Amino acid sequence: MAGKFEVYEDKAGKFRWRLKAGNGEIVASGEAYESKRAAIKGTESVQRAAADAAVVEVD
C-alpha cells in the first residue's frame, strides 16, 4: 500500500497533518493550522517540495 497524508483535528481544535508510510508508521507531521483547508494546503506544499528534493548529507 502507498503512503498517505492524514488531516485531522487535534485536542486543541487545530488542524494538523501526518504522513504515514504504507505500513502505517508516521514518517512526518506538520504544524498546527487554524483551518482544515490550510492543513491540506500544507500537505500540497510538502508534496511539491519533496518531488524534486535532493538528499544532502550534513556533517
* CATH domain class name: Alpha Beta
User: Which architecture name does CATH use?
Assistant: 2-Layer Sandwich
What string, H for helix and E for strand, traces the elements in order?
A: EEEH
The best one-word shape is globular
Radius of gyration computed on alpha carbons: 13 Å
Spatial separation of the terminal alpha carbons = 34 Å
Task: Report the sheet with the most strands, covering strand number, pairing sense and barrel closure.
Answer: 3 strands, antiparallel
Mean pLDDT: 96
CATH topology: Double Stranded RNA Binding Domain
**What percent of residues adopt helix (DSSP H or I)?**
25-40%
Class per helix and strand makeup: alpha+beta
Task: Count the beta strands.
Answer: 3
Low-confidence stretches are: none
| Continuous helix count | 1
Identify the CATH homologous superfamily.
Answer: YegP-like
Estimate nothing, just give the exact number of structural domains: 1
Strand content: 25-35%
- Going across the major beta sheet, what is the strand order? 1-2-3
Provide a compact summary of the structure.
With 59 residues, the protein is of the alpha+beta class. The protein has one helix at residues 36-51, and strands at residues 4-9, 15-20, 26-29.
Please provide a written account of the structure.
The protein has a three-stranded antiparallel beta sheet, covered by helices on one side. A hairpin with a 5-residue loop joins strand 1 (4-9) and strand 2 (15-20). The protein contains one helix and three strands. The longest helix is centred in the last third of the chain and has 16 residues, at 36-51. The radius of gyration is 13 Å and the shape is globular. It is α+β, with helices and mostly antiparallel strands and 59 residues long. The N and C termini lie far apart (34 Å).
